[in-house]
């Protein structure tokens, strides 16, 4: 298990919500509804009186944390040798483009693609212009 939680690998620690903030309370409400076995449609429905952007932001961060945890548990089985292509089955190949190092869509081994993807998502989530920590200030055009 030590390898799964090694920060130098692909696992990243969860992004936390500050206790006592409205986003923390929304996160607790989201966790409670998702863990209760209720209808998913009802679980993600915007609570009355809450800001839609804040609610979406909480779920985006939770989704990232869950995917990150899942990927952390399987990354040792998908190496550049065993997974030389990032694909979605035999019909789909994913290519990386970031307009920085990879200016054109580039085929990469799955682990390298996933590392770049998780890094990119983490930068987006930590960008105050996209996901501000002050409640009610998300840019609608980004989400």
Automatic annotation (TrEMBL):
Q: Which UniProt keywords apply?
A: Kinase, Metal-binding, Transferase, Zinc
Top-rank taxon: Eukaryota
InterPro entries given in the database record: MOB_kinase_act_fam, MOB_kinase_act_sf
GO terms for MF: kinase activity
Which residues hold Zn(2+)? 78, 83
Q: What's the protein name? A: MOB3B kinase
Q: Which gene encodes it?
A: Mob3b
